[in-house]
Write a structure and sequence with these properties.
Blueprint (H helix, E strand, L loop, with lengths): L2 H22 L17 H18 L1 H6 L7 H23 L2 H6 L2
Helix pairs in contact: 1-2, 1-4
Amino acid sequence: MKKGYWVAAALAVLFVGLGLIVFVEPPTDWLAVIQERSSDRRPTVLAIVLGVVFVGLTIIRPLGDLFALAPLDLTQWALVLGAFATWFVVMRETWHWRLIERFVGA
């Protein structure tokens, strides 16, 4: 498997982890499905900044070489962003409609 696909997988997992931060401290009512809306926007800003930094590490060649990160092509970026967007919407709807609680009977 090409090295870029490992970087794409790591990037997708990183985005999912950072996305969970947004659900735990939701800055908007639309995202407030498992927690009440938070007036503190710092966790969301932190998640965005960390995501941008990691994307920068994959784009800026000297930094990518330092951390052994291969650059991604457009197909890999589309896969990463598509997977993250799909996960984000599915998680939001799953928590909004309480599907897991309904499934296990809680």
